[in-house]
Design a protein that fits this description.
single chain, 224 residues, four-stranded antiparallel β-sheet, 12 strands, globular, binds calcium ion
Length: 224
């Protein structure tokens, strides 16, 4: 799960990044609305945590802009404003949840998990394909009930493909997803990871189909 944290309070942002990273999330911080918009164009995220009091733009205005650009990601608002109007306005502008500062990190994490479950997994935390099972809460991938041992990059790639099951995923999105320090992964490196992953998951009835010039598609082997 890739989280974009839009928060200008460095101490709070560091704490959140630390806690959420320890729980297996990948968190990218943005200290302004402008930078957040730049990141959203360049990278792929699954969830946004949005502070309303940003230095360059009101969080509610940013939220409205993002929704008007048809950005469908779940958004959790974080704010020191606790008046009911802001809360109602936030939800009206398309936020999915709302937390008032100060808050307990543990509560934020639980709310985040619930949000991810609502948006990506229905009431079930698991995504299944073939004999593979992804637990979207723990990020563990099991094959025939046993933990599948993969490198960090392979695991991230497989989780991403499973989350997009049945949808075509273009190479650019994979490159951004597996980027390190903002450097997108090279095409041939992606091919290497896809090749390795194929060999690991085929025995469990899951294939990665190459759609030439477009990208990859994770499918049940039976549907071939
Ligand atoms: Ca702020």
């Amino acid at each position: 799960m890739n989280i974009l944290l839009i928060e200008d309070d460095a101490v709070l942002a560091d704490g959140l990044i630390h806690t959420l990273s320890n729980s297996g999330y990948r968190v990218t911080g943005a200290i302004s609305g402008n930078y957040a918009e730049h990141l959203l164009q360049a990278q792929d995220f699954d969830v946004i945590i949005l502070d309303l009091g940003l230095p360059d733009i009101d969080g509610l205005v940013l939220l409205r802009q993002l929704r008007s650009q048809k950005l469908a990601l779940p958004i959790l608002i974080l704010t020191a404003r606790d008046n009911i109007n802001d809360r109602v306005e936030g939800i009206m502008q398309g936020a999915d949840d709302y937390m008032t500062k100060p808050f307990e990190l543990r509560e934020l994490e639980v709310r985040l998990q619930a949000l991810i479950r609502r948006c990506y997994g229905g009431f079930n935390h698991n995504i299944e394909m073939g004999r593979l099972l992804l637990d979207t809460q723990t990020h563990q991938i099991k094959a025939d009930g046993e933990l599948l041992t993969l490198s960090a990059r392979e695991a991230e790639l497989l989780e991403f493909l499973l989350l997009q099951s049945g949808k075509l995923v273009c190479k650019d999105r994979i490159a951004q997803r597996l980027s390190s320090d903002g450097e997108a992964l090279a095409d041939n490196a992606i091919e290497v990871y896809i090749h390795r992953l194929r060999k690991r998951i085929e025995p469990y009835g899951v294939i990665i189909r190459t759609v030439r010039g477009l990208g990859y598609l994770l499918e049940n082997k039976n549907y071939e």
